[in-house]
Amino acid sequence: MRNSQWIAIVEDEPDVSHLISYHLEKSGFKTREFRGGKPLLETLSFETPSLIILDLMLPDIDGLEVCKKN
């Protein structure tokens, strides 16, 4: 498993996700945006972010379920 310095933003609303990402990147952080919990869980199988900003109400899997799975 590879560790790197990035922040995962899990948010199904693109405008909200882009706004969060914009401000974090403006402050010098690297970000990756995910539209649902399943794509994040797939990524977590081979990469670990430094921080996860997780929406609770996602279209594919509830944010609390994402927390329980990892």
- Give the neighbour order of strands across the main sheet: 3-2-5
Radius of gyration: 12 Å
- Total helix count? 3
Give the termini separation. 14 Å
Sequence stretches where pLDDT stays below 50 over 5 or more residues = none
Overall mean pLDDT score? Answer: 93
Strand content: 15-25%
Shape designation: globular
Question: What is the oligomer described by this structure?
Answer: single chain
- State the order of secondary-structure elements, H for helix, E for strand: EEHEHEEH
User: What is the helix fraction of residues, given as a range?
Assistant: 40-55%
The strand count comes to 5
User: Tell me about the biggest sheet?
Assistant: 3 strands, parallel
Structural class call reads alpha/beta
List keywords for this structure.
70 residues; alpha/beta; three-stranded parallel sheet; 3 helices; globular
Tell me briefly what this model is.
Helices cover 40% and strands 23% of the residues. By secondary structure, it is an alpha/beta fold. The mean pLDDT is 93.
Overview of the structural elements:
The structure is a single chain. By secondary structure, the chain is an alpha/beta fold. Helix content is 40%, strand content 23%. It is built from 3 helices and 5 strands, in the order ββαβαββα. It has a 3-stranded parallel beta sheet. The longest helix is centred in the N-terminal third of the chain and has 13 residues. The radius of gyration is 12 Å and the shape is globular. The chain starts with a strand and ends with a helix. The relative contact order is 0.28. The model has no long low-confidence stretch (mean pLDDT 93).
